[in-house]
Write a structure and sequence with these properties.
With about 260 residues, this protein is mainly α. The protein has ten helices and three strands. Strands 1-3-2 form a three-stranded antiparallel β-sheet.
Length: about 260
């Protein structure tokens, strides 16, 4: 019999009848709102949408060629990641950069990535060399371009999480990767910072390949905290510049409104 309108449970299929294709690959395809959320989230990280900018459902739906309902659900997903703030009567705004959030996220990141690096060193095998070398090569190719370097850095972090062979830890790191991404970009804005970052990644790879767990964790934590400090400096530098631009705009408005002498 069924219970509360639900179909009666069916007996589990015999193992001989359940093949490797029991689950269709299509079932794992991301939903349309999730795909849209990933695209908008990436644009926010790359600052193609500025902090505080309003995200208009109509414009986004037209750009993606989808319904406003799909866009609305995508924005809700981004709201859960704290990349978007949804306000009554105003809609979705790109969440402002915040010093407290930056510090909190990087402190968590330093701990999680430090643990991942320690696990990666402890569980290292020569089979890991190819992935580590490819990651370093990608970082080196992107050092002259902030966007390319940030993408390579994110891929390196994801790769480090996989090499830790700790699925729960990898899930935690992935969970707020995009949220911290725009702060990471700020911290890697200068070529000098990217050069120092690349040098740290190279030292980390050496520590992992020699199974030096303590050193691997130490380097990774230092790398995360250096990025934090650089991002904090960038935010502090932006604040007076923004205030100055705002003052100039208000001055021009006052001059336009004042009668000619």
């Amino acid at each position: 019999m069924s219970t509360f309108g639900q179909p009666a449970p069916q007996p589990a299929p015999d193992q001989s009848e359940a093949g490797n294709d029991a689950f269709s690959p299509a079932a794992l395809t991301p939903t349309l709102p999730l795909q849209i959320a990933e695209r908008i989230g990436a644009a926010i990280v790359e600052e193609r949408f500025a902090p505080g900018e309003r995200l208009k459902e109509v414009d986004l739906a037209r750009a993606f060629g989808v319904s406003r309902t799909s866009v609305r659900e995508a924005l809700r997903l981004l709201g859960s990641r704290a990349l978007v703030t949804i306000l009554p009567q105003r809609g979705a705004l790109v969440t402002l950069l915040a010093r407290d959030e930056l510090e909190n996220l990087f402190e968590i990141r330093a701990v999680l990535l430090g643990l991942a690096a320690r696990d990666a060193a402890r569980r290292y095998t020569p089979a890991d060399d190819a992935a580590l070398a490819a990651g370093i090569a990608s970082l080196a190719r992107g050092r002259d371009d902030v966007g390319a370097y940030v993408r390579a850095s994110a891929a390196m972090v994801a790769g480090l999480a996989r090499l830790s062979r700790n699925a729960e830890l990898a899930q935690m790191i992935a969970g707020f990767a995009q949220r911290i991404g725009r702060y990471t970009r700020l911290g890697l804005a200068s070529r000098e910072r990217r050069a120092r970052s690349l040098a740290s990644w190279r030292r980390l790879v050496q520590a992992i390949s020699t199974k030096d767990e303590r050193r691997a964790e130490e380097i990774t934590r230092g790398l995360a905290l250096e990025n934090r400090d650089a991002a904090l400096l960038a935010i502090e530098t932006r604040a007076p510049q923004k205030a100055a631009r705002g003052g100039e705009t208000k001055g021009r408005q006052r001059r336009r409104k004042s009668p000619a002498g």
